[in-house]
Design brief:
419 residues; alpha/beta; binds guanosine-5'-triphosphate; 8-stranded mixed beta sheet; Rossmann fold; single chain; binds magnesium ion; 13 strands; 15 helices
């Protein structure tokens, strides 16, 4: 027989402790208060119990077993968890990651796989954003746009491109794009960019016939930048290009006071010959007096596309000319597609050779240019990218235009690379 003592803040709690350790049958020998309750201190009671030694031994073994049972359960659970983990990750990138990390090494293909997975996930996130954007699933019109294509679709759509153009290009892309390129939005964007570029006709400056007199006439609506563009090109041809050319200027039908003044001052400053023409008979004379020039640039007064009388007069000048005139339609990038169409239709009978777009710096959407040029199938020749004469002009480039459509106009970066 053994006597054991248990203490607690009450006799019943002390007894509970004793019974927990020695069993319900433990014999209570005494109960007494061994510390009185005082300020900040609770009372302490002691319970002394008498227990058979065999009983103590039995209870010790039981408690040992209980804790080893718990350990067993934990290790079983751990085993199960690791088995589940192995199954779920056996085919995934994660398994490779774990096993490769053990070897402390990841080879390039693993990195690529992980990268692709991250891009795929980010595409999914983009798709969700997309769905908020139009508050509907990626089912747009009759086209079902996969998530990797969502970003590019949105950008193109916001660029002001014609919806039918966009849908047919998307359809083409979805049909022909190699499967391995579809994996993420980056490769989709690259493919889409190349496809769009191929659709834009561009007339290279180098394609202008050498040795042949080049007579360029600038026509277009009022205020689009015809005179400014002419001045920039006059400087470019006469001073800035590798091979300097003799450049002359003609101002046509310029009854408006001030319109000629500006150009006359510019020509004087640049030491370029300039002729002012009001009558058709004067036109032939002016061309003759500039016959020593390699390039003749003809400025016209801006005409509203609705001003049929003025347009008819311009046509008369062109028809009566005995020389080939390269007709350059000047349009502003910030004009909406439907207005561009209308302007083009009204100037079309002048037999337009090429289109110059101005004011790239004044807009954020360039899809209108893409759609117009695609529709009318006339090549672009120059882009005006600001007000500065002679710097803010560049040769048209489909690459530059598509970058503007998909990523916006960035003068410093793009202009330098494309001049
Ligand atoms: N921001 C910006 N302004 C431009 C650009 N090109 C021309 N401009 C400005 O547009 C305004 C009109 O330019 P003009 O060259 O006089 O236009 P225009 O077509 O000759 O005008 P009209 O002869 O009246 O028909 C001027 O203030 C120019 O500085 C350009 O690329 N970007
Ligand atoms: Mg003008």
């Amino acid at each position: 027989m053994k006597l054991l003592s248990f203490t607690a803040d009450s006799p019943s709690n002390a007894l509970k402790k004793a019974q927990l350790q020695c069993g319900e049958n433990a014999l209570v020998v005494s109960t007494k208060e061994i510390q009185k309750k005082s300020l900040g201190k609770s009372a302490v009671y002691e319970v002394v119990v008498a227990v058979e030694e065999k009983e103590i031994q039995k209870r010790k073994e039981k408690s040992k077993k209980k804790s080893s049972d718990i350990l067993l359960d934990i290790s079983k659970a751990a085993k199960q968890i690791s088995q589940i983990e192995n199954i779920t990750t056996s085919t995934s990138v994660k398994e490779k990651l774990t096993s490769q990390t053990q070897k402390n090494k990841l080879d390039d293909s693993d990195y690529k796989e992980i990268k692709d997975e991250i891009i795929r996930l980010s595409d999914k996130v983009k798709l969700i954003q997309e769905m908020f954007w139009e508050e509907k699933s990626p089912q747009r019109g009759k086209l079902n746009i996969p998530s990797e294509f969502a970003e590019i679709y949105k950008k193109a759509k916001l660029s002001g491109m014609d919806q039918n153009d966009l849908d047919s290009i998307m359809e083409l892309t979805l049909e022909h794009m190699p499967y391995n390129m579809r994996k993420n939005s980056k490769s989709v964007k690259r493919y889409f960019q190349v496809l769009l570029r191929k659709m834009i006709p561009v007339r290279l400056e180098s394609n202008i016939q050498k040795g042949k007199k080049h007579i360029m006439m600038f026509v277009g609506p009022t205020g689009v930048g015809k005179t400014t563009t002419l001045a920039k090109l006059a400087a470019r041809y006469s001073y800035l290009k590798e091979k300097r050319e003799k450049v002359g200027i003609i101002t046509l039908d310029t009854y408006r006071i001030g319109a000629v003044e500006q150009l006359f001052q510019f020509a004087k400053m640049m030491r370029l010959p300039i002729e002012d023409v009001i009558d058709i008979s004067d036109f032939a004379r002016a061309l003759h007096s500039l016959s020593f020039c390699d390039t003749i640039l003809i400025d016209t007064i801006g005409s509203s596309q609705y001003d049929k009388e003025k347009l008819a007069k311009m046509e008369e000048f062109l028809q009566n000319s005995e020389v080939d005139i390269d007709v350059n339609l000047v349009l502003s990038s910030s004009t909406k597609l439907e207005d561009l169409r209308e302007i083009y239709n009204n100037f079309e009978y002048l037999d337009i050779d090429t289109i110059i777009f101005t004011k790239f710096d004044e807009t954020k959407s360039f899809g209108n240019i893409f759609s117009l040029v695609k529709e009318v199938a006339k090549p672009l020749s120059y882009f005006s990218i600001g007000q500065e004469v002679p710097d803010d002009i560049m040769c048209a480039s489909s690459e530059f235009l598509i970058d503007c459509i998909l990523d916006g106009f960035k003068k410093d970066r793009d202009a330098k690379s494309s001049k």
